[in-house]
Amino acid sequence: MNSPIRIGIVGYGNLGRGVETAIGLNPDMHLVGVFSRRDPGTVATAHKSTSVFSMSALYEDRDDIDVLVLCGGSRDDLPRQSPEFAARFSLVDSYDNHSHIPAHFDAVDAAASKAGTTAIISVGWDPGLFSLNRLFGEAILPEGSSYTFWGKGLSQGHSDALRRVPGVAGGVQYTLPSDEAIARVRAGDHPELSTRERHTRECYVVLAEGADPEAVRAEIVNMPDYFEPYDTTVHYISAEELARDHGGMPHGGFVIRSGNTSAGATQVIEYQLALDSNPEFTASVLVAYARAAARMSRSGDHGAKTPFDVAPGLLSPRTAAQLRAELL
Amino acid sequence: MNSPIRIGIVGYGNLGRGVETAIGLNPDMHLVGVFSRRDPGTVATAHKSTSVFSMSALYEDRDDIDVLVLCGGSRDDLPRQSPEFAARFSLVDSYDNHSHIPAHFDAVDAAASKAGTTAIISVGWDPGLFSLNRLFGEAILPEGSSYTFWGKGLSQGHSDALRRVPGVAGGVQYTLPSDEAIARVRAGDHPELSTRERHTRECYVVLAEGADPEAVRAEIVNMPDYFEPYDTTVHYISAEELARDHGGMPHGGFVIRSGNTSAGATQVIEYQLALDSNPEFTASVLVAYARAAARMSRSGDHGAKTPFDVAPGLLSPRTAAQLRAELL
Predict the structure, then answer these.
(1) Please, which residues bridge with residue B29 across strands?
(2) Which candidate, B120, B16, B105, B115, places its Cα nearest to that of B67?
(3) Residue of B nearest to A25 (CA)
(4) Which CB contacts under 8 angstroms, 24+ apart, belong to A186-192?
(5) Inter-axis angle of helices A278-298 and A14-23, to 10 degrees?
(6) Are B4 and B24 in contact (CB under 8 A)?
(7) Would you give per-residue pLDDT tens digits along chain A (328 residues)?
(8) Which of A101, A317, A324 sits opposite B324 (nearest CB)?
């Protein structure tokens, strides 16, 4: 066996914790430590043995890290961190602001190409595995329609929006795909689906003392962009119920490509994720792509990459010959 | 737009016909013609405009073909043709004899590496897309179980076996996945499933005149390897019903990976194909990989490859920048 791939985790929230756990499931990987903006003494890691360093330790002259896994947010952290660290390390990030991906790619590519590192951006499940399935679907079935449905899942952004409504003491929001829409797509109907027909939104809300439930409900369901375009249901629950029943971070969804190869022949490709923990799953995808980043870096395939650029075999700990014999 | 990718089809059965049709759906491709062992005058192509040549025309000195799509069988044709043609052309094949893939790869690799061509073998859906999903599943969720189910689909090999039974005048066999087994896998149960628990087999048989239905049924359901390990149902139908209701070649199936990222978190990845026409779908996959073969050949990435070695972006007619902006 080759020497293990040495990983540094940058940022330690739910995603960083998921990466820490995922590395423990991959015997060919070694966790060098967590790098945090917080005082290292205050960071309680999932495993006691995990080292925690201050972020500044990444600016020391060091050669003990093969790949950084960036676990910060797409709004404030990654646009700055990914280009900055790509100038010193190979890395993977989960940049997920779809409309800004080209600009993010260019910034990271400039740094990584110059430094001779390999930086795989937008790794996770959407963008990531769902993107790959959108690509495979239309490359294989050029005449057809693609559909992406999300859920059932907790939406962080919509939960945040919900909690900003006056009179809301706490709450979570779940996105649900429409069963009826999925059934029509699976049947090869190529339906034109409105936003309202694709997904519904379900809110579980703890009211602040004295707040008017009808006024809060109206405020929520009419919120532009976030809830107004959807059929939104608001359930009022107690703080105890919120803590007891809604602490998980489930998510998932579907990518479906339905196409015709000839007049009579409908072909349907469907990819589905059902995730108990969104951050742990995204972390697991990041770790598999960290393996690919280490290999691409070693073989001289430098610059910014996306999952579209990564040969699938590079994700597996097995050798190419093993893969052919055992998985093909 | 670049000049079109020039394709030659080798062998013209159901698969070759599917490739001919699929090329018509891909504006960046141009069909040079079909190369057949039969007298070209006797080959009736799907499109009148398709040129048909004798196989010997491939041995002339020619530079008008970028990629050959080999559409012969895995038992008799591809073990000979793929290495032979890889010495002169880049190509894709659908070699599907899982246990002999390593030997086939080595033979093709020797020829392609020496000649400086790119030959992608074992392209299709199993091996092919299902293999990719087995790989992604275990790379992302190292602690878990993988399951492949086939069907509902027409099995060519089992239909052939059926038709060799004395007293059978005609017939087809469908493989069906067990709904119960799939439900258990989706629930994250990690069941150990016997052959009998995974699939059932359904035969539609036309009896020869004077044949004893009970004797024929017993002969079929007790056939070692083919039917004995399964719960097999035999339906007797008329020759008219066979022709009317069983002329299609539907197939499909599931690859499901169920794994845990931590004690409480079960994650399920599911890939599903529902195909009205197995040969047309396999042909569509071959054509997308022919695009990748042309590009890898141009960029100097020579030798034998499998779908594990092909970066997904190479399958799409869109540029890398378009893919990032539009599909990621």
Answers:
(1) B5
(2) B120
(3) B142
(4) A186/A256, A186/A258, A186/A268, A186/A270, A186/B274, A188/A258, A188/A260, A188/A266, A188/A268, A189/A258, A190/A144, A190/A145, A190/A258
(5) 60
(6) no
(7) 578 999 999 999 999 999 999 999 999 999 999 999 999 999 999 999 999 999 999 999 889 999 999 999 998 999 999 999 999 999 999 999 999 999 999 999 999 999 999 999 999 999 999 999 999 999 999 999 999 999 999 988 899 999 999 999 999 999 999 999 999 999 888 999 999 999 999 999 999 999 999 999 999 999 999 999 999 999 999 999 999 999 999 999 999 999 999 998 999 999 999 999 999 999 999 999 999 999 999 999 999 999 999 999 999 999 999 999 999 9
(8) A101
- The Cα A24–Cα A6 span in angstroms is 12
Rounded Cα distance between B13 and A84, Å, is 56
Place of tokens 């050798």: A319
B-proximal residues of A, 192-231, CB under 8 Å: none
**Beta carbons of B276 and A272 less than 8 angstroms apart:** no
Chain B CB contacts of A271 below 8 Å: 269-272
Tokens representing A73?
């947010």
B7 in helix, strand or coil?
strand
Rg (CA), chain A: 22
What number of other Cβ atoms are within 10 A of residue A99's Cβ?
A: 7
State the nearest Cα–Cα gap between B259 and chain A, in angstroms: 10
Residues in chain A with CB shorter than 8 Å from the CB of B312 are: 132, 135-136, 307-308, 310, 312
CA distance to partner chain A, nearest, from residue B233 (Å): 27
Q: Nearest-CA residue of chain B relative to A125? A: B328
Can you give the length of chain A in residues?
328
- pTM comes to 0.95
